[in-house]
Recover the amino acids of this structure.
């Protein structure tokens, strides 16, 4: 069946380093992707999105890369800060009339 | 703060009982989504409403139901509760009815069934 998965369930990085969180999706029909951040005790928070007609999109300290050939999505966080510690979810959408499928999440821990 | 509010924050109840979770979407958003988040299942889409009408159903049990009222707030009703229903329940809203657009999540309701 269709699913969204993550390569790494946990990721620990040093403060100040760059973080890369990966996501593999199985449905080639998906054309819209979102990365969400969920801090403990809070709801998912939108970070950045990308549509399938793009392969890269940048935000503030974050970059999302989309490789449709291998159905892979990644979130890069530059100069990782303690406040970046959270669970990160990728979500895919097949487009019109469809709903989002969320991956299981990756926990990012920022070490001092 | 996403602008989406959910009440109550926490709910503890016994098996077999019925509870109602409430959600108010962001001002102007007509679409409301309900999700269940448990440790072993991740975020699971339950149901979507747009301007009072049901638009999509996901993995929602027959014991669960929802509705969206004319003022656009939504309620999720969970009945004949089982231990396995213990989870975080999130509401999200979006200005769009269909298509791919970001959803804004509320803080969630933590349901514990004992």
């Amino acid at each position: 069946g269709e699913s969204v998965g993550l390569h790494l369930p946990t990721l620990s990085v040093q403060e100040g380093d760059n973080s890369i969180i990966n996501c593999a999706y199985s449905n080639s029909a998906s054309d819209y992707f979102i990365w969400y951040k969920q801090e403990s005790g809070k709801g998912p928070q939108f970070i950045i999105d990308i549509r399938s007609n793009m392969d890269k999109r940048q935000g503030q300290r974050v970059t999302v890369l989309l490789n449709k050939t291998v159905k892979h999505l990644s979130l890069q966080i530059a100069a990782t800060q303690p406040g970046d510690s959270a669970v990160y979810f990728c979500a895919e959408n097949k487009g019109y009339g469809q709903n989002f499928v969320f991956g299981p999440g990756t926990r990012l821990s920022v070490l001092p | 703060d996403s602008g989406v509010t959910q009440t109550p924050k926490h709910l503890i109840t016994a098996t077999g009982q019925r509870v109602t979770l409430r959600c108010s979407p962001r001002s102007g958003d007509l679409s409301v989504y309900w999700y269940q988040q448990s440790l072993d299942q991740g975020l699971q889409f339950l149901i979507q409403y747009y301007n009072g009408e049901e638009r999509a159903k996901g993995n929602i049990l027959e014991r669960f139901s929802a509705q969206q009222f004319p003022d656009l707030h939504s309620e999720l009703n969970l009945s004949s509760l089982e231990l396995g229903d213990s989870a975080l329940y999130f509401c999200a809203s979006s200005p769009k009815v269909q298509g791919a657009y970001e959803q804004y999540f509320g803080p969630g309701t933590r349901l514990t069934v004992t």
Q: What stands out?
A: Chain B touches chain A at residues 2, 4, 33, 42-45, 48, 56, 58, 90, 92, 98-100, 102-108 (CB under 8 Å). Chain B has a mean pLDDT of 91. Chain B has no helices and eleven strands. The longest strand of chain B covers residues 42-50.
